[in-house]
Amino acid sequence: MRHLMSPLDLSKEELDDLLTLASDIEKNPKKYAHVCDDKRLATCFYEPSTRTRLSFEAAMMNLGGKVLGFSSADSSSASKGESVADTIRVVSCYADICAMRHPKEGAPLVASMASSIPVINAGDGGHQHPTQTLTDLLTIRSLKGRLDNLTIGLCGDLKFGRTVHSLIEALVLRYSNVKFVLISPEELRIPSYIREDVLKKNNIEFQEVERLEDALPDLDILYMTRVQKERFFNEEDYVRMKDFYILDKQKMELAKKDMYVLHPLPRVNEISTEVDADPRAAYFKQVQYGVYVRMALILTLLEVKLPC
Ligand code: NCD
Q1: CA angle 58–63–64, rounded 5-degree value
Q2: Which of 20, 42, 55, 72 has CA 20 to 30 A from 298's CA?
Q3: H/E stretch holding 181
Q4: Per-residue pLDDT, 308
Q5: Tens digits of residue pLDDT in 296-306
Q6: 130-144 and 283-301 helices cross at what angle (nearest 10)?
Q7: What separation in Å is there between the alpha carbon of 305 and the centre of ligand 1?
Q8: What is the mean pLDDT of residues 44-54?
Q9: Which helix (H) or strand (E) holds 251?
Q10: Pairing of strands 150-155, 221-224
Q11: Is the beta carbon of 89 within 6 A of some atom in ligand 1?
């Protein structure tokens, strides 16, 4: 039985197969409409979510399966003191696969060790968010036609943004010649374990800069992120940081004609709504790719026999 805690749980070949399956699902959705008729997905979300939870549920429904779950710790027995290990033992009796989001780093891993069904990490604190990374990879591959030889700018909260951590790890360790421009205020720089153990250790070309304007002209992809309010220790620091970057029409003029803008969403102020009409704004397309890739992931982890 396999779980997904980090994008690196998939080899390069498995990752490519999964993205290819997701693209086939996009082209032939009907073919997959009943492949999970007898399966159930549990969504155990101890932290707020719109896209991740609903896209998992939509993915399972698109495959013909059923869904059950809870969307906050308050509405589960966690509020009575139940451990994630006990909860997953119980959920294993009701469902075939579980997507779990938790504010504590490592909680889905603890759950996976007690589980008798595959567990998918749907975001653990400021650590990892592997299914957002699969979404991002599918989006980039679909729009640019490749995942190698790219210059990617990541902008905003690089310290607490778990989507950034997972995406960098996957691109560095599974693809080649990807360069990074890390755009953040001093206080929200990338954690040192990513800088040292992932980027430097693998001799990856990267720069850390503060001004978005300086980075924009060189980028193939700009990955914007929200300042992660819920991970700050005090409100004052958050207020100081929250509007540090605002991508607007004027800044978009500095970018290449084929530079796409991605964002895991939710957006707060970091992308002005005037950018939405720009053909390079890909963040809502990205949401759709998130459904296809989660369908492909469910099929892969459940080892469902694929239709020909
Ligand atoms: C992200 C997350 O939860 O980490 N959202 C998502 O899953 N699409 C990003 C965020 O909350 O800023």
Answers
A1: 95
A2: 72
A3: strand 178-183
A4: 83
A5: 999 999 999 99
A6: 120
A7: 31
A8: 95
A9: helix 249-252
A10: parallel
A11: no
Closest among 144, 146, 156 to 181, alpha carbons compared: 156
163 lines ligand 1 (CB under 6 A): yes
- 231-272 pLDDT, tens per residue? 998 899 899 999 999 999 999 999 999 999 999 999 999 999
**211-218, Cβ contacts within 8 angstroms, sequence gap of 24 or more:** 211/183, 212/153, 212/155, 212/183, 212/245, 212/247, 212/251, 213/251, 213/254, 215/153, 215/155, 215/181, 215/183, 216/153, 216/251, 216/254, 216/255, 216/259, 217/254, 217/255, 217/256, 218/151, 218/153, 218/181
Residue of 174, 133, 291, 159 whose CA lies nearest to 232: 159
pLDDT bracket for residue 14 (50, 70, 90): very high
The pLDDT mean for the chain works out to 97
What percent of the chain shows pLDDT beyond 90? Answer: 95
Kindly give the pairing relationship between strand 40-45 and strand 97-102: parallel
263 classed as catalytic: no
CA of 287 to the centre of ligand 1 (A): 11
- Is 159 tagged catalytic? no
